[in-house]
Amino acid sequence: MIANRARFRHAKKIERLAGYRVPDLAFHPAMLETITARFNYDALDFAIRQQLLNFFNDFLRCSCKNSPLCGCPEKKFAKKVIELRENGLDHRQISAALSDEYGIEIFPADVLSFLEDSVHVLEAISDVSRLQGRQDLSEKTDEHIRLIER
């Protein structure tokens, strides 16, 4: 999944502030627990603090019992990447947007690979939904495919 490739640009600063080693992967359980625990966001400079708060608000807010280790953050991140593509950004622009908004570094090639895999999954969903007589679902998936491939 695309979330396994996402890294925090300022992971070393987060690590220093937390006082213990954490991996730089943004969606690693140790990182998620670190930034959702009693973490002193005020000790970070404004830009990094804003990026972490954006990350927290957009990906970590859910009502699951096991939050943030419930899988919702990774799903929300994948959805965000697809939404950015459907809004017309290419894989390089998506990578830059994630870096600007959340401080997340991800290679454009990883974004492109994820988008290609997503199209294949959507094509399978479309085919199965046609076979099951679910024309509405088939049309929705075809529209998503069209938006991703343009």
SSE layout and pairing:
Layout: E1 7-8, H1 11-18, H2 29-36, H3 46-59, H4 72-86, H5 91-102, E2 104-105, H6 108-131, H7 135-149
Antiparallel strand pairs: 1-2
Task: Characterize the structure shown.
- This protein is an all-alpha fold and 150 residues long.
- It has one domain (2-107).
- 64% of the residues lie in helices and 3% in strands.
- It is built from seven helices and two strands, in the order βαααααβαα.
- The chain has a two-stranded antiparallel sheet.
- Helix 5 (91-102) crosses helix 6 and helix 6 packs antiparallel against helix 7 (135-149).
- The mean pLDDT is 94.
Name the average pLDDT.
94
Structural class: mainly alpha
Main sheet: strands, sense, barrel: 2 strands, antiparallel
Strand content: under 5%
Distance between the termini: 22 Å
Q: Give the oligomeric state.
A: single chain
Q: In one word, what is the shape?
A: elongated
Order of helices and strands: EHHHHHEHH
Secondary structure tally, helices = 7
Strand order of the largest sheet: 1-2
> What percent of residues adopt helix (DSSP H or I)?
55-70%
